[in-house]
Design a protein that fits this description.
Helices cover 82% and strands 0% of the residues.
Length: 519
């Protein structure tokens, strides 16, 4: 299979998974709003997001081990589209996998202990009125245990991604995640609270781990059958990049995923649901946008190792355009629809407000740009973003305490945007362009300027649709606006991202499908 097909299939799998996750998330959140009281919803969102932050407890090993496996595969030769085959690269991968299994085992144990202590500090900071403290503690412990067990099996995901099996992890997690959400819906409708939700999440996490192990054994049995050894030299060489990646991840997590902690300490947990719901919409759009970078990063590692720089730059430029097109079309549509969308989704009175939503759109669009750039730069083992990440975290915490005290929710949202603008938004782009041999002027001309114009066009069109359909039910405006922005996005992808060869291939496949005899 060619490199472009591998990236395309991996991206489609990631997109499909993320879209399904978004749909099920959209179903669960309004049910929580309607079936649980505001305090319980706020606490669940606080625990759920804090649980997600635990991803930093892998000490940077996940990204580093995945990259090392991809680099080892790149040593097999310039034709990195082929399978690993025999020889030294295969032995190196086998040794890395065995070493990773041991390391993840001890990291998982440590993560449970650390997350439990963090939970004690977190729960003590929550001012509860009606919800029992014991329920919050049990829910947190269940979430921590499930995360640690999932971390224990992370080596399988690292191996699959490093060898080029992109997208499969997303497919598996999506199917299990969809089932988990359905069970959570049943639990909520049956009167269950946050403990039941946590148990469902834990069962889903464990099931995903076991399915991933079975899949990995079936796809890369030749690696697992290779006699492997503990590689102390690899461990020593991974310590520095892993710690840099870990500290960078801590800075990112503090900057982007701690708003709920400041809201809980400066305000009330009941303020979290509408704020968090708007942020989750944009964050899901962010994850959808960077799916192609996640899919392509292992191949960038392989191309870098093989010295295929022209192919590498083509992958990077195309991925940047696709990521930003998706983000600005979705963000402009959400801004244009505003309270019409949120009142329809969550019920009246749950719109966080235009100023905060606008800040979210700008903040996370910039995050897509910097994350995509840094993902590709770090794929070449260029772990140099520690300073800007920690600086962003320091600015975020300082400003969140100050602006949050004076301006409330808007101040907390602005603290993230200001921290980004001062650090990662410009430095990650600058460093990555330099590292990968890209053209800054070319990026402004071919990517940034068309993306800005696309944002204005999409927003204007959706606003016009909203005005024209003002007399109709809200769902008509929302459906029409989303459909129109989707069509604009597809046109932009066609004209701004695909080259002539790709367009020819796509059209040939469409004609082939149309020519099939109808049953």
């Amino acid at each position: 299979m060619s490199l472009s097909k591998k990236i395309a299939l991996g991206t489609i799998a990631n997109w499909s998974g993320r879209l399904i996750s978004i749909v099920f998330g959209l179903l669960l959140i309004p049910v929580l709003f309607r079936k649980l009281d505001a305090e319980e919803v706020g606490v669940w969102m606080l625990l759920g997001q804090s649980w997600a932050i635990l991803g930093i407890l892998d000490l940077g090993l996940t990204a580093t081990l995945t990259r090392r496996i991809a680099l080892a595969k790149g040593k097999a030769g310039a034709n990195i589209d082929e399978s690993l085959g025999e020889g030294a690269p295969r032995q190196e991968v086998a040794n890395l996998v065995k070493t990773g299994r041991v390391l993840f085992r001890y990291i998982a144990i440590g993560s449970f202990l650390v997350s439990t202590l963090f939970g004690i500090f977190l729960i003590k900071s929550i001012d509860l009125n009606t919800l029992q403290l014991s329920k919050v503690v049990v829910a947190w412990l269940v979430l921590c245990a499930s995360y640690s067990l999932g971390l224990w099996g992370s080596v399988w995901s690292c191996m699959l991604l490093g060898l080029g099996f992109v997208g499969w992890n997303s497919v598996i997690s999506t199917i299990i995640g969809a089932v988990t959400v359905l069970i959570q819906l049943i639990v909520v409708f049956s009167g269950g609270g946050i403990v039941g939700l946590a148990v469902c999440a834990a069962i889903g996490s464990l099931l995903q781990r076991f399915v991933l192990i079975i899949f990995a054994r079936s796809r890369v049995s030749e690696i697992l059958e290779t006699r492997a050894n503990w590689d102390s030299l690899a461990v020593k060489s991974m310590v520095s990049p892993a710690l840099l990646a870990w500290l960078t991840g801590i800075g990112y997590a503090v900057t982007m995923h701690t708003d709920q902690l400041f809201i809980g300490s400066l305000g009330s947990t009941m303020d979290i649901p509408p704020y968090r719901a708007a942020y989750l919409i944009m964050m899901n759009l962010t994850l959808l946008s960077i799916a192609i970078a996640i899919s392509a990063s292992v191949f960038v590692s392989q191309l870098w190792q093989a010295g295929e720089m022209d192919r590498l730059r083509h992958v990077v430029n195309q991925s940047l355009r696709i990521s930003l097109i998706i983000m600005v079309c979705g963000g402009a549509c959400l801004l244009a629809l505003g309270p019409t969308f949120f009142d329809l989704w969550l019920g009246p009175g749950n719109f966080v407000g235009y100023p905060i939503l606008f800040v979210f759109v700008i903040t996370l669009t910039l995050d897509v740009q910097s994350s995509t750039f840094s993902t590709f730069s770090r794929a070449t083992e260029d772990e140099v973003f520690l300073f800007c990440s920690l600086a962003a975290a320091f600015i975020k915490v300082s400003l969140a305490l100050l602006l949050g005290f004076y301006y409330g929710l808007l101040g907390i949202a602005l603290s993230t945007l200001i921290a980004q603008l001062a650090t990662s938004s410009w430095y990650m782009a600058y460093r990555s362009i330099k590292r990968l041999g890209l053209s800054f002027r070319g990026y402004l001309r071919d990517v940034a300027t068309p993306i800005l114009i696309l944002f204005i066009i999409t927003g204007s069109v959706v606003i016009a649709i909203k005005i024209l359909l003002k007399a109709h039910p809200p769902w008509v405006s929302v459906a029409s606006g989303v459909t129109c922005s989707g069509l604009i996005m597809m046109l932009a992808l066609w004209f701004l991202t695909f080259d002539e060869n790709q367009k020819t291939i796509i059209m040939a496949k469409i004609r082939k499908l149309q020519s099939r005899p109808k049953v």
